[in-house]
Amino acid sequence: MAVALLLMCYLATASSEGAPSPPERIAVVGAGIGGSAVAHFLQQQFGPQVQIDVYEADSIGGRLATITVNNQQYEFGSATIHSLNLHMQDFVKLLGLKQRREVAGKAAIFNGEQLVLEETDWYLLNLFRLWWHYGISFLRLQMWLEEMMEKFMRIYKYQAHGYAFSSVDELLHSLGGERFINLTRRSVAESLLEVGVTQRFIDEVIAAVVRASYAQPLTIPAFAGAMSLAGAQGNMWAVEGGNKLVCTELLKLTKANVIRARVTGIALLSTEGKMLYQLRHESDGGHGLDTYDMVIVATPQYQGGSNISFENFEPSVVELPGTYHRIVASVVHGYLNSSYFGFPEPKLFPFSSVLAADNPDLFFNSLDNICPVNVSASFRRKQPQEAAVWRVLSQRPLEKPQLKTLFRSYYSVQTRDWAAYPHYASALKELPPIVLHDNLFYLSGIEWAASSVEMSAVAAKNVALLAFNRWFQHHEKIDQKDLMHKLKTEL
Ligand SMILES: Cc1cc2nc3c(=O)[nH]c(=O)nc-3n(C[C@H](O)[C@H](O)[C@H](O)COP(=O)(O)OP(=O)(O)OC[C@H]3O[C@@H](n4cnc5c(N)ncnc54)[C@H](O)[C@@H]3O)c2cc1C
To answer: For 122-134, how does the pLDDT look when each residue is reduced to its tens digit (9 = 90+)?
Structure first.
């Protein structure tokens, strides 16, 4: 009996000395998809006993947001998700949400004078037209994208096995070697020319797609370009009820403590040999200070946009370079002026989306006839001669004459000016760091490789795994080389 008791005491001491206890308090700054997802993944890793506080200065969802027109909600920020975005799919299943029914619609590209490419209802006819105009360029593009997507999908396998990366470069390298890193350093146009896509196809089609998704020219990095082109292949979906539901529901599931306050500073404190992070925050209720074992910054930090100061760090945490690109979303309820696109008879206008070609004189980037976030079985898209809800993305707010050019008349216009994506022309020499200090992590730097909902979710899982592996010193799970091979031989 005495021996058994001694043995139990020994085992208890060994485990308390051997394995550190999990962090007690973690703070997440930002409740967009990045912040909500990292709160969920952190809880999965560290367990339910860890207190997770999520600070949000504005609305839960961040760039996932809706707007109300005529008592119905529409996506105002990020509207669509790719079918291969597995984290988003998992969230929807886990949270008991549904994918919204797809409402068919056709797209065209407008060069300021005429439609230069028109989609039809017939898949084969679309292929024939592409081949007729551009030869086999679209097949070359397809092959390039498929190869990239196949390599990108490796991340899900690595993450399922608990592997994490301490920098975006390491993460990309594990997926596609030096080539993937180079794709963040050279332009999409250059990379496509190299695989045999013609200049004409790039100028007439690729430029319009890139402009519609990132509002930037063909000089954007190839990795980001590929993400936007993958989105144009179809197979897109959205969440019934609004994409932002994923954020609100993840936070509820995690039982995260959501604090409506803006974090203004993070200071390093050293008390009784323990490193802690002190968060300074402000809200309508006043100022506050709180200390944490670990902090995740899940909101973009960049020149002129960083609103958090870092204090007492040695070496200091410097302001991250680069700027963010502005996009104005205008949601217009009204009658389209189809004559502007060469269709004097409104009811003959067959398109639900128009992308602007790479013409600097065009004052909009894209125009979409959008469906509400709740689509009933009987829902049908409005006919072109009826008043419909359109979303226009442009570089600047639309002026009255510009609205009058696009719409015969309208009932309402609501706008939101987004700091939408990294301004890729202010390209960074290096991608931003993930580890800012021992247990202080930056999630949003991944946007400099490509900015999308799923990229933030991938970054969230990576940061949660990295934080866990560093905390418990599972060094063998960080920055492992040749992972694909390793996993094949391990299985
Ligand atoms: C108009 C538009 C259309 C888009 N379309 C698509 C699309 O179709 N598909 C796609 O995949 N992606 C799209 N995107 C990109 C996508 O929305 C983003 O990549 C993604 O939502 C980023 O999520 P995040 O959580 O990383 O950042 P955010 O959503 O920006 O979240 C950051 C959060 O932090 C909060 N915050 C900021 N500072 C502080 C502070 N100091 N203290 C506390 N809180 C703070 C903010 O209020 C915000 O809620 C689009 C973006 C825009 C703007």
So the answer is: 666 666 677 777 7
